[in-house]
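Dear support,

We are seeing what looks like truncated structure output for some complexes. This example has two components. We would appreciate it if you could run it in full and send us the complete token output so we can diff it against ours.
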Amino acid sequence: MITFDHVSVTYPGASAAVLTDVDLTITAGELCLVVGSTGSGKSTFLKCINGLVPHFTGGTLSGRVVVDGRDTREHRPRELADIVGYVGQNPLSGFVSDTVEDELAYGMESLGVDSSTMRRRVEETLDLLGLADVRSRPLLTLSAGQQQRVAIGSVLTMHPSALVLDEPTSALDPPAAEEVLAALTRLVHDLGLTVVIAEHRLERVVQYADRIVHVPGAGAPLVIGDPHTVMATSPVAPPVVRLARSVGWSPLPLSVRDARSAATSLRERLRDHAPSPGPVEQLGELVASAHRLVVSYDGVIALAGVDVDIRRGEVVAVMGRNGAGKSTLLNTMAGLQAPDAGMLDVGGVAPARLAAPDVVRRVALVPQNPSDLLWRESVNAECIDADADAGVARGMTRAVLTELAPHIDDDTHPRDLSEGQRLALALAVLLVRRPPLLLLDEPTRGLDYAAKERLATIVQRLAADGHAVVFATHDVELVAEVATRVLVLAEGEVVSDGPTATVVTASPAFAPQVAKILAPQPWLTVGQVERALAG
Amino acid sequence: MSAQIHAHRRLDIVRLHGRSAFALVVVTLVGVAAFTWPFFAGTAATAESSGLPHSTDAPWLFVALLPLLLGVLFAEIADGSLDAKGIAMLGVLAACGAALRPIGGGATGFTGVFFLMIPAGRVLGRGFGFVLGALTLFASALLTAGVGPWLPFQMVAAGWVGFGAGCLPPARGRREVALLAVYAAFSGLAYGLVMNLWFWPFAHDYPHAISYLPGASLGTNLVHWLHHDVVTSLGFDLPRAFGNFVFVLVAGRPVLAALRRAARRAAFEQPVVFTPRQVSA
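Here is the complete output from our reference environment:
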């Protein structure tokens, strides 16, 4: 179906090749998972399949890529459009029309499909992806998961023989990501579609993959093999695999189910241990306190009487489904939203009453999209501005940034940074003022494992330095790793509030993989298990 | 990637060669003729005595001819010089330019319609500048300004504005912005003067000193034309020139940077090379 025949790719002006001597055949009906850290060359690999590399990007491609008998040397991307469907990270940037049905039909119109066939395929696709309820809705009113399913549907209607997806869930929150991945596995199993997908939420897809291509980056040779073999050595791996590797299970389990049956003896060994409590918390003074806080938008209640106290040194995870009030709580604490009733006290004052410069000295909010804070043309200009705004010596922001994310070039445009680097820059701009309270709204969206790990280290260090950190997230693994306390919101009310281990193991929806494998024992992270076994 | 290397090379993403260059030359020549015929027509004979058929309706030929020629030019350019990225860039910038047209309102002459085509011509090349200029005026006519016999003239004149921006000498930083701002002021003025020509010969209710005199000498008509401009349109042209100047001076730098970044991201003019497989060692 898709053949890479000794393919190497070098971009114009680059000194080294991105891909070197890739030799691979993906057969029809295969689900091929491409893993690797940001910037490793995953996208280049995927874009070779529909000819965007090198026809669109420029560059030198040696060897050849053949898709369904068509060689990309002779066929430009538009001549491959009917056999390769390509879906990117952000569905909105690919939409051409306004409503779901129009978008599904657009590709077929371009290919000149007759109208009765178009009609039929639109109906099929609506059912296949569960979009029939929203068929006439404007695209902008859909949820992110629905939008991404429409993006997938709009290429499926062209009846491609291969579907190529470049991190289709990285801009989505976990429930939406789950929706999209469930739809994809159904396509592979029901239609026998060939799917090549780059993804960093490995815990959700790795058990469905027929083959894994690991792109190590820097032009190093790809590691290609069946999931069990590749996962045994891959530096990017979900917690279940990391646990299995550190305990030495063979064959390597890829799902919680497989691991649970392999874990009987491990549970036995761990029976007499207890998870180390981690660094002992030095809970400091109160930095924020809310009492019976009520916030509403146009009469719709977003927070309905929330009580919460936050002290220095705490890392509080705010969890709950979309619309539960997580972002509202953070925005209200940052003074962006005025409470309708109740009392909110941040550093001794009500934040909504303060002028902006006084708010930012007490509390810093990194919004869901960190680009909202960045508006200059280069990283350096952004840092110099932040120094001036914070009234600190020139170079301070840059020093904070280097600490958070080394190797960022001064002249890079902030929008050209990777998600993780952009988050680091936004953090540096805020942290240079040393605010006692730091709020992060969905900070792990779009981060790969390495970037997430670095974020966890940063958050722990900030807490150790006496900052209080509150973050809204769906990412249970991150919560298990860094949070000292978890606050679960539902319908604008606090439904549980307590130490991480207690809250997280109480409900399967919020339990990390390690907790699911080792239940009923209260282990949360691979690190805890490793320390217990070593000690 | 090699951002530094590309940032300082001048792009020309609508390369004009062969038939497209020829079509542009023809459009320009016919455009020049369409604008300047009043100065040359009937110098040998007066309008009354010429007695030639079509001596009054012949100018309308240009109104019909110019759009056809522009069509030919666009077809030639679309047929090879312009790829999907170029079309996307053209579409977005023409739409933005059209949206900028109502800024300032018609009454003052001040308009934002020229603001984008000048930096765009500068960054993306003269061929692109011409097409963008013509297309922006066309799109804005459909949206707000209205379609009429003046439209082809506007398209050609705006095309020249964009083309000229792509021909300016190299400069960087503040000098570049200053250069573009001066050019924007100049072109705002010149556009008004040139555009007067399309209707001036047909306006019959002007006083003698600013009227077109069929059959008069080139010098007389030029003087009359300049007087006409000073008396009637300079009040619009000067605010337009000043508006262009201020627009480019204030927003030129970020717009140039954004266009250059977009051009870099789109990897225009990057060579696409296929080589046979390398024998691995």
